[in-house]
Specification:
Blueprint: H1 3-15, H2 21-56, H3 62-93
Length: about 100
């Protein structure tokens, strides 16, 4: 279930399926507030994952965490490029 579907279900649970003008305004405000909360929760989750990854890699300070994350990202990018290159050479090698 996506966050949009969940937000619509919450709106129906709170306001029902009414179409009055006041209901539409209130539904719009609640919908926007819930979307904002969903975005905030996603960004907080991503920040926590990055912090945990850096700590697991042995970084203690904020600067060191950034350095470890950048190094891991660059190594991952290099690894992906090698994988693509290896796949493309194996495909051209077989007739």
């Amino acid at each position: 279930m996506t966050s949009d579907q969940l937000i619509e279900e919450v709106l129906i649970a709170v306001y029902g399926k009414g179409d009055m003008l006041d209901d539409r305004r209130a539904r719009y405000m609640l919908r926007q507030a819930l979307h904002g909360l969903a975005r905030l929760a996603r960004s907080e989750q991503l920040m926590a994952m990055r912090r945990d990854t850096a700590r697991a890699a042995g970084a203690s300070g904020r600067r060191q965490m950034r350095m470890v994350l950048r190094r891991a990202a660059s190594q991952a990018a290099v690894g992906q490029a090698q994988l693509v290159l290896a796949l493309s050479t194996s495909e051209t090698a077989t007739p």
